[in-house]
Amino acid sequence: MSAYGPETTTNEVLDGADLGGRRFVITGASSGLGEEATRALASKGARVSMLARSREKSEAAAARIRASVPGAKLEIYDVDLADLASIRTFADKYVAEHDAIDVLINNAGVMCCPMSRTADGFEMQFGTNHLGHFLLTNRLMPAILRGDSPRIVNLSSGGHSICNVDLDDPNFESTEYDPWDSYGRSKTANVLFTVELARRLRDRGVLSFAVHPGMIMTELSRHLTEETMNLMLERTKSRQKKAGDSSGGGMSFKRVEAGAATQVWAATAPDLASHSGSYLGDCQLGVEGANPTHRGYESYALDPEAAKKLWALSEKMVGESFA
Ligand SMILES: NC(=O)c1ccc[n+]([C@@H]2O[C@H](COP(=O)([O-])OP(=O)(O)OC[C@H]3O[C@@H](n4cnc5c(N)ncnc54)[C@H](OP(=O)(O)O)[C@@H]3O)[C@@H](O)[C@H]2O)c1
User: Fold this and answer.
1) What is the DSSP string of 85-97?
2) Pocket test for ligand 1, best of 90, 220, 239 (most atoms within 8 A of CB)
3) At 249, is the pLDDT very low, low, confident or very high (cuts 50, 70, 90)?
4) What is the average per-residue pLDDT within 179-191?
5) Residue 138 belongs to domain spanning
6) What is the pLDDT of residue 240?
7) Which one of 10, 25, 27, 31 would you pick to mutate in the ligand 1 pocket, going by the greatest count of ligand atoms within 8 A of its CB?
8) How many domains does the chain have?
9) Is 183 considered catalytic here?
10) Per the confidence metrics, is the pTM higher than 0.90?
11) The domain that contains 25 carries what CATH number?
C-alpha cells in the first residue's frame, strides 16, 4: 500500500496532484482538520464547498486559506448538522444548483459534550456526528452519483474503540449518559455507515472510506474537563494494553497538517480504488486489533450485518428511506 505514515502531511499526499475541475464538499470546514483539508485541496486547484454552521467562522477560515492560496476556489454554505430541516434545505438547494459532487468529506464533529439534544430531539453526538451526515449524504446523493470517480469520506476516530453502537437505545433514553460512550458510539456509527455505503454503492461507482486522523490539538477538545480528560487517558491506556502496545508512545499528537492528511489521502489516492469500505489511519489501511490511536480498529465497527441494521435505524430516525 502507501509509503506514507503518521507524520505524512497534506502537502506530501497531494504532491504533484492536479485537482483542477474537481468539486469537493466538506463539512466542518470552519476550523481544525476541515480547514486544513480545504486549504490543501484548494491549493491543487479543487473547487471546495465549505459547510459549517457559523458564517463568521467560515469566512475567517476562508480568509486564512486565501491568504496562503491566492485565488482559492471556495464557496461557503451554512448548515447545522444538528438540525434535519437545515440539512434538507441546504441539500435540496445545493443539488438543484450543482451538477455534480466528486468527493464528499463528512468531517464535522462534536466530542464529549454534556448531555444535550439536537433540534429533532436526538442525543447530540449521535445526532450530529452520525445522523446529520447520514441525511446529508443521502440528500446529496443525486449529485454524488453524477460525480467523476466519486468518493465519500467519513471522519471516524480511534475513539470508536470505546464502544459499539447501541441500536436499542441510540438516544440514551434508558442508559445513563456517558460523554465518552456517546462519542464512541457515534464514531463506530461513522465506520458502519461507510461499510453500508460501500456495499450499496459498489455497482454505482462510488467509493467510501472511514478515517481516523490521529490525535491533533483542535477545537474538538472544547468540551473537555479535567475529569473527562483523565477518564480518556485511563481508557486509552487500557485499550493500548489490550492491543498489546507497551510502547506508551500511542498518545503522541500530530500537527494539523499531518492530522488532515489521511482524509485528503482517502479523498484522492488512486491506489485506494479497490479498498472501498475500509478503515484508514496514518495514511495506511487499518489493522484489526492494533493500537486504535494509530490505525487499529475493532472488528465490530466493520460488521456488515450491524451496518445494515444501523442504516435501517437511521432511516427510521430521520423519517426517510434511501435506495
Ligand atoms: N482532533 C482530533 O484529535 C481527532 C481525533 C479523531 C477524530 N477526529 C475527528 O475529526 C473531525 C474534525 O475534528 P477537528 O479536530 O477538526 O475538530 P474541530 O476543530 O472542533 O472542528 C469540528 C468542525 O465541526 C463543526 N461542527 C460541529 N458541530 C456542528 C454542527 N452541528 N453543524 C455543523 N458543523 C458542526 C465545527 O463547527 P463549530 O466550530 O461552529 O462548532 C467545526 O467546523 C471530527 O469528526 C472528529 O471527530 C478528530
Assistant:
1) HHHHHHHHHHHHH
2) 220
3) very low
4) 98
5) 10-312
6) 67
7) 31
8) 1
9) yes
10) yes
11) 3.40.50.720
